[in-house]
């Protein structure tokens, strides 16, 4: 899967790839003494590998394209942890952090948790409300399109496990979020753009409305989602109207994504009180 993701990144001109649970040299034999030449994954001439410090097998890593005109550095104040990697990325006078809840931050994670906010068609996980509240308490905005599958394994239910979140002060610079299904893994890839030095986009209707999820009526939310989907004939249109390929297919899918988001937003407005501003 890593080789496919790296090749796809080249084709799509992706600058940074975040990998979770990567294959590490010697990882099948032991969990410690991952030092020196052992601290590496699958190599590629176009990318530099960045891994957490320490001698324990890392479970996260990043690939950065060698030609990237940016300064990438680890935070000396961040604790050494094989499960976490905090990087500061600075390019053309713009700086943001990757993987920690700090100002101008992007969080990428397989949370392995189902919640109606991002996975309205799966049963809610026992710890999901705590996770949703944590997102809200830390002013993180979810980029995922609710219900858009990120995990697909044979004989298992499709679901949304891999989430992308951004801090509010970076939300207007992160755009074009979408799912990549062709990386050869049961977890789909996610792709988005961090806009540098460009005119800020107009916030989406979802971003303009923040909801108090602690007071949400989730059963009503699920019922409303199903009701709006049925009334809009969403699934029927996908099955009967979707063009086979090309520009028309892309236009149709964009329209369906907008309809889907609108249905989710309307259901949220009916069942979740809005949070107070500020």
UniProtKB/TrEMBL annotation:
InterPro entries: Endo/exonu/phosph_ase_sf (IPR036691), Endo/exonuclease/phosphatase (IPR005135). Residues 102-189 form the Endonuclease/exonuclease/phosphatase domain. Pfam families: Exo_endo_phos_2 (PF14529). Coiled coil: none annotated. It comes from the Eukaryota. One of its GO terms (molecular function) is catalytic activity. This is DNase I-like protein.
């Amino acid at each position: 899967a890593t080789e496919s993701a790296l090749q796809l990144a080249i084709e799509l001109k992706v600058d940074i790839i975040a990998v979770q649970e990567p294959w590490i040299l010697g990882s099948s034999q032991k969990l410690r003494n991952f030092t020196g030449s052992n601290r590496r994954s699958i190599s590629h001439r176009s990318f530099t590998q960045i891994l957490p410090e320490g001698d324990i097998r890392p479970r996260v890593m990043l690939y950065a394209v060698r030609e990237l005109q940016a300064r990438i550095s680890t935070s000396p104040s961040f604790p050494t942890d094989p499960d976490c990697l905090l990087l500061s990325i600075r390019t053309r006078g713009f700086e943001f952090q990757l993987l920690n809840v700090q100002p101008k931050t992007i969080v990428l994670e397989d949370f392995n948790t189902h919640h109606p906010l991002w996975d309205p068609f799966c049963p809610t996980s026992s710890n999901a409300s705590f996770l949703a509240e944590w997102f809200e308490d830390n002013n993180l905005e979810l980029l995922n399109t609710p219900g858009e599958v990120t995990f697909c394994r044979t004989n298992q239910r499709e679901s949304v496990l891999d989430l992308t979140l951004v801090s509010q002060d970076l939300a207007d610079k992160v755009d074009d979020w979408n799912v990549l299904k062709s990386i050869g893994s049961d977890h789909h890839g996610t792709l988005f753009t961090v806009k540098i030095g460009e005119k800020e986009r107009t916030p989406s209707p979802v971003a303009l409305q923040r909801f108090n999820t602690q007071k949400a009526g989730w059963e009503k939310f699920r019922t409303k989602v199903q009701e709006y989907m049925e009334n809009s004939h969403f699934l029927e249109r996908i099955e009967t109207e979707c063009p086979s390929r090309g520009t028309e297919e892309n236009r149709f899918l964009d329209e369906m994504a907008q309809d889907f988001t609108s249905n989710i937003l309307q259901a949220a407005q009916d069942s979740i009180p809005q949070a107070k501003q500020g």
